[in-house]
Target: GntR family transcriptional regulator
Amino acid sequence: MSKPYAIRTALTEVLDGLVEGDPFPPERELAARFGVARETVRQAVHELLVEGLVERRGRGTVVSKPKLVQPLSLRSYTEGAVKMGRKPGRLLVTWEDVEPSPELTAALDVAPGELVMHLERVLLADGQRIGLESTYLPRHRFGAFTETFDPTTSLYAAIRATGVTFDRAVERVETVLASPREAGLLESTTAMPMLRLHRRSVDTEGRPIEVVRSLYRGDRVAFEALLDDRDQ
Model:
C-alpha cells in the first residue's frame, strides 16, 4: 500500500470517530501521529476537502455536513433540500431582460430579436452557498413575473401556479471548474470541482418553459436518479 493511500485511509478512520462540526486535527499533529511529512498529510486533507468530508472554518478544519443529495427529476431544488431536512434559500444576483443567442432563441422557441428573461440566483442550504442557478424564460409566457415573482422563493412553484404543467426535460451533467466570478459567488475557489447541469424543460403541449444552467459545488452537492427497465 502506497504511503499517500495509507494516510488517506488513516484520515478516513479519524473521521469515523468524529461528528459534524467537530474540529479535525491539524496537519502538524497528524504528521507526527502517522510519522509522515506534512505535505503528505496536506494532500490527503485536500482530498477530504474536495470530497466534502471536511471544510475550512476560520483558520481550522471541521467535519462537514453530509452532502445535499438532489434528485435528477422535474422537481425544484427546494423540494430536494426540504426532503433532506435542510433549509433552502436564495440570493438574487441578476434579473434582467437579455437578447438571446441563436441557440437560446431556438431552445425557447422565441421570435428572432425577442428578449428573454434571465434570472440568476445563488442557492443556499442552511445558509451555505451550494449552487449558482441561471434560468432563461420566454418573456411572452412569464413576463408578469417581473411584477409578481419573489426571487427568494421557488420558481417552479410560481410557474405551476400559472397553470403550466411540466411534462419532461432533457438534462446533461458534466464536471467543470468555476470561473473566478462563479467561484466568488459560491465562496469557493477556481480549483474546486463543480457539477454543471444544463436543462431544457417543456410543458404537456411540448412548448418550452425554461433553459437552466446550474453550477453546484462538488464538495456540497451530489445527484441521484431512479433507474428501471420496465419500459425495455
